[in-house]
Design a protein that fits this description.
38% of the residues lie in helices and 22% in strands. By secondary structure, the chain is of the alpha/beta class. 31% of the residues are buried.
Length: 361
């Protein structure tokens, strides 16, 4: 499980973020949280104490504790809300990597974080080789062949979701900040993953058709493995796909299938086939279809052939140290805190290495 490093603050601030992340991690792992009710109350008390610290309501919290959050003056105070924003920003920033498809992102996507106002540039070294010229006697030199590297820029855009926090559960000490963080992070994570898949498809279309084949056969398989390996300096090649795609990789000859049934039945696919290691990636559902059509996001009929240590074709750029939490200017006095969670992000394809695709029938 991965975490982004959040921007550290005071000791009490760091303890709050760490506790929120621990609640989120437990929920994702379906683990029981010991003394959850007591820990939630302590967490909410720590958050309200931090939010009111240094404001004119610090004494009010000291006198009333969580009950102070029921006071409309506290709920609308800009200083208090800004402190809430800091907690929301850093907790979701920390949780976001926990809800992404780690395998798919590690294989296909390179993530880079830049400062505010900076530009993300990616250099791709040319894969051309120098031409060897035959030089006749008396000739000064052969033909000069310049080789140029390429530089690509990925620009960021603003993306946001609108959310709200009910102050009554906070005042009651039962508000689950970990669950809130997971929901917000999953919303961004699902959106990012959908963009990555779309960008990966675009990256594949930029590569010559010589690196694609249709229909599973030993001839198509070995041809793609050899081409991708040769195009990447003889590197090893991985075949990557969903479980539904990889379990179709079975020797077409009946005699070669004997003895493979147990391995496939246990894990659903062969670990290695014709010199190529198979790596499965977890499926995800298209956002918004969980309760309707349950549409799968990853294609079950495509296997990607990627060279080891090759350039990752999808580039993800985050601008700034974390997402931003901004008070909704249309906030209404209904005991909720309405916020806009914003992230500056860019996703684009930069094809620096050749990879192959096998489309199954």
């Amino acid at each position: 499980m991965k975490l982004f490093n959040y921007v550290k603050g005071s000791e009490e601030f760091n303890d709050i973020i760490d506790e929120i992340v621990s609640f989120a991690a437990a929920e994702l792992a379906n683990e029981k949280i010991e003394n959850k009710d007591a820990r939630l109350r302590t967490l909410n008390e720590s958050i309200v104490a931090y939010a009111t610290k240094g404001t004119r309501f610090e004494q009010l919290f000291a006198e009333k504790g969580l009950e102070a959050m029921k006071d409309p003056r506290v709920q609308k105070n800009n200083d208090v809300l800004e402190n809430y924003n800091a907690i929301i920003e850093q907790s979701i920033t920390s949780i976001l990597p926990m809800v992404t498809n780690e395998q798919y992102m590690d294989i296909f996507a390179e993530i880079r974080q830049i400062g505010w106002g900076d530009t993300a540039k990616f250099n791709v070294t040319s894969n051309e080789l120098y031409k060897v010229n035959e030089v006749a006697v008396g000739v000064n030199r052969g033909v000069l062949q310049p080789i140029y590297d390429n530089e690509f820029t990925v620009l960021t855009k603003k993306y946001e979701i609108a959310a709200s926090i009910d102050f009554y559960p906070v005042a009651a000490g039962v508000y689950d900040w970990g669950s809130f963080g997971i929901r917000a992070a999953k919303s961004f994570g699902a959106f990012i993953f959908a963009k990555v898949i779309k960008t990966m498809t675009a990256a594949t279309s930029q590569i010559s058709s010589a690196y694609s084949a249709s229909g599973f056969s030993n001839a198509n398989w070995t041809a793609l493995v050899e081409k991708v390996s040769a195009a990447n300096g003889g590197a090893g090649v991985y075949a990557i796909g969903t479980l539904s795609a990889l379990n179709q990789v079975i020797p077409p000859t009946a005699g070669l299938q004997y003895g493979l049934g147990e391995e496939v039945a246990k894990i659903g696919y062969l670990n290695k086939y014709m010199g190529c290691t198979l790596i499965p990636v977890d499926q995800v559902l298209v956002p918004g279809t969980v309760n309707t059509t349950a549409t799968l996001a990853l294609p079950n009929n495509i296997i990607y052939f990627v060279a080891a240590d090759a350039y990752k074709p999808v580039k993800i750029v985050f601008e700034g140290e974390s997402l931003l939490a901004e008070r909704d200017p249309d906030h209404t006095p209904d005991r909720t805190y309405r916020i806009r969670l914003q992230i500056m992000m860019g996703i684009d394809s930069v094809v620096g290495s050749k990879h192959g695709t096998l489309t199954l029938s």
